[in-house]
Amino acid sequence: EDGPWVQHINGEGTDAPGRNNNCVDVALSTADTLSGNPTAAAARTPDTGPDGLPSDRGETNGRNRIENALGARFSDMGDGRNAFNRLENTLRDSGHGSQAVIITQDANGRAHAWNAVNHNGRITYIDAQTGRTSRTPLHDGKNGVFAVPLDANRRPVSPQTTPTATDASKSGSSPKRDSPNSPNSPTESRRAPEAPAGAPYPTAEDTPHPRDEPNRTNHPRLGAPETAKSTPHHGMHPMPDQQHLRTTNNVRQVGMDHVHQQLNDWMEPRTVQHPDGTETTRIPLVDALQAGTPPNSADGSPAPVTLRRSDLERLLPGFADMHPGEQGAVVASLARLSLKFHEAHAVGASPEHSADQPSRGAEAHAKAQWPARNRDEQELKDSIIAEFDKSGIAGALRDSGEHRPDFTGRNYAVIEVHDPTTGEISYLVDSSYPNVTGEKGKHSESNILDYLEKVNATREDGKKYEPLSLYTDREPCGFGQGHANCSNALSQRIPGVDVFYGTGYRKNGELVDGASPGVNRKALYDRDLAKNMAALGKVWVRAMGEGGLRVPAQS
């Protein structure tokens, strides 16, 4: 999708006469162009209605013209996000260069034709009539998604029109969630709309802003925002700047048990059906860890492949059903579980690549050991012995390859950002890091916010990445020795943004009535983090063994 070619297929654009109702010709011209035959779309003279006046409806027999040109009928993919998941699976299974012509319609029955293409495994949606592209669907498809998929040689392929594991959610549903008669599932009787028209048509610009998504305010596991003294940890109230953060931002603690359960659920194999009738067994968590590609040279060649929220929703069934704090905790966990995932979504890689900005957190991760305090649970010890035998922890880290874990006490933070130019949501995750030669160390929150600020400095107003939420493994710290006052930084730099944390992290805060002042609370906070590290450690051992990520050293 590089370059402005999409914006030139439809001439002067939808403001020119005959170019806001010509989506059939635009979609076919796009298909030709994607096949290596650059083609411009023609303007269209409207059909005449029964009254003899120009009709504002679509091209008569437009659907049939597309089908005749492509050599196949439109297939009913279903409705909404699940329908696009099926289409994306079909294109990925069909390989690089595969594409599809799509027809969707709005609630008023106005139909629209547009396109999608698979470029090296990344699906891009194209609406050349309006000149827009996106990694996520440009139209919601709630009233039907119909498609003619084509392989790289422009030959029709049989689409995946049955629900698969990627359609399923672990929140009480199974891979067969969509019954044949459910509104999300394809039907045998529906045909694509006969007369696609085009703009004006709802686009991503007309949809609600992601900050208004219901799961940000109404979710069964989303409690009320904390107040200054509503949530003591180990008998201690928040420090003063931590209390102030709760007046500038909604702050909530994430229940990590559900996050860890989901990570384990994603280690269960799932059967995926392919258009040719074959089946493969996939492990969602392993797929997610493998999917990202970090930059591997200073000049950015190749550029990293980072996963957007839509990618994680596709790869991890049930991810879409989590609230933003849980989603952030998942991303932080994936980064801890795998150096490869960390590098692909860290400073210098996400949401945009910057060749001159290495991730100091990832550099520290590459050398990370596994402290005994963070693997003290007997169940974890037993699983390490069972998988790595006598080689133990040293062997586990040696055999981890690109998926080396980071179960140290370094904090990981994740910021969820919205790109107003594409509608995509991305994650930037990185850790704290110590002082290095010529550079002072940073806490994780400042690390990611500094990079986001650098990226946004290259964008015009109105096109800058918008922070939606921030998750941090430890509660943002206050002011004091060993604390960098991240709470104050968040209050000043991203006021109003939802903040989530995994475990408490306080020092010299006011004690609740009756709390003993002689308790070593730092040890208790460290123990809480160690509990989370042990839970992740068990997931990582499963990924190494059951998931096949272990790379035994050559003898």
TrEMBL record:
Coiled coil: none annotated. Residues 21-131 form the Tox-PL domain. Residues 54-63, 206-216 have a biased composition (Basic and acidic residues). Residues 1-63, 134-243, 347-376 are annotated as: Disordered. Residues 158-187 have a biased composition (Polar residues). This is Tox-PL domain-containing protein.
